[in-house]
Amino acid sequence: MPTVIPPTIEVHLTEAELRTAMETDVRDGLTATPKQLPPVYFYDDRGSRLFDQITRLPEYYPTRAERSILEAHAKDLVLQADADVLVELGAGTCAKSRVLLDALRDCGRLGRFVPLDVSETTLWAAARALAEEYPGLEVHAVVGDFHRHLDRLGADRRRLVAFLGGTIGNLDPAGRRRFLADLVATLSPGDRLLLGTDLVKAEDRLVAAYDDASGVTAEFNRNVLHVLNRELGADFPTDRFAHVARWNAAENRIEMWLRSLDASRISLRDLDLEVAFAAGEALLTEISTKFTPAGLEAELGASGLAVESRWTSDGGEFQLTLARRP
After folding, report:
1. What domain range includes position 273?
2. DSSP string computed for 104-115
3. Pairing of the two strands 192-198 and 159-163
4. Are 114 and 154 in contact (CB under 8 A)?
5. At what angle do helices 45-55 and 216-232 cross, to 10 degrees?
């Protein structure tokens, strides 16, 4: 009978570093043209609860679609990956990881799990829970940023690196090239990437997923302003910024914006910064790129990854891709 192995955690990102990154990102973003903010700042406790509500909305298909693929094909993909270590980037509470861990256990391949996330509190809680749920599993959590700490994930055994949720779509083309190049540089021959991506589809279906009738996504979008007000001493009048979701056909992406309803000057006390908004001026808060199978395969191939298998959800809305470093 396997015994519970106490989890371990490795911290490469401190609260002070996270604070410095926020200050830099916000200063650079609000002085850019157009103004913009990284989507990572949606996700305080309130934002995480709102996003959890979004995943349950009838309009928001990606979470359900990806999970349906995982549940249908997890055993196939873990057998094909033939890995001893499962790594998940942006693991959060590790909810999706459990589907893969169940398949690894059922296939007799349960070995080591390495979740990476920026929140030490969330990650440590998930690591302890997983160690109890999966006796015999070695859980080694890494607190870090997938833009900076991919080289801290160990390379002593064959790995399956999962990057799920369509998160890669939050990066622009240059950002995706940098991320994939950095990832491939850390992979050994035979290591594999399991990538979740949303696919191009009808514009009305896409826009509805990011602008639900009940207004939850709008409140989630405005949450970034609540975060700046609390963390940086800003004075955004959050109710005077309207949620806008639109399809950018030229870039194959949904864009979320916050449009100022009034001309205003916003003070960010902790940054010693004032920012002017014209009436109608919009702040870009998120991009979510949608892919075609051929376009995604070309991007992965250009980075040095060979696509081995693809699985799509019913209706062809979402795709999981297994790619190998030769």
Report:
1. 32-58+203-289
2. HHHTT---EEEE
3. parallel
4. yes
5. 170
Residues 89 and 222 in one domain: no
Judgement on whether residues 171 and 218 belong to the same structural domain of the protein: no
CB 279 within 8 A of CB 157: no
CB neighbours (10 Å) of residue 114? Answer: 22
**Could you tell me if 282 and 244 are in contact, meaning their C-beta atoms sit under 8 angstroms apart?**
yes
Contact of 199 with 291, CB cutoff 8 Å? yes
Strand-by-strand arrangement of the 112-117 sheet: 8-11, 138-143, 112-117, 85-89, 159-163, 192-198, 318-324, 306-312
Model confidence over 54-100: pLDDT tens digits?
Answer: 999 999 999 999 999 999 999 999 999 999 999 999 998 899 999 99
- CA–centroid distance for 91 within its chain: 8
Which has the closest alpha carbon to 150: 188, 123, 122, 112? 188
> Do the domain assignments include residue 21?
no
In a domain, 83, yes or no: yes
Strand partners, 86: 113, 160
pLDDT 10s digits, 98-147: 999 999 999 999 999 999 999 899 999 999 999 999 999 999 999 999 99
**Alpha carbons 247 and 265: distance in angstroms, whole number:** 29
Q: Answer whether the bond into residue 34 is a cis peptide, omega within 30°.
A: yes
Same domain (yes/no): 47, 103: no
Q: Which residues contact 84 (CB under 8 A, 6 or more apart)?
A: 109, 111, 112, 157, 158, 159
Are 51 and 78 in a shared domain? no
Location of structure tokens 């002017």: 276
pLDDT in tens, 191-244: 999 999 999 999 999 999 999 999 999 999 999 999 999 999 999 999 999 999
| pLDDT score recorded for residue 156 | 84
pLDDT, tens digit, for every residue of 131-140? 999 999 999 9
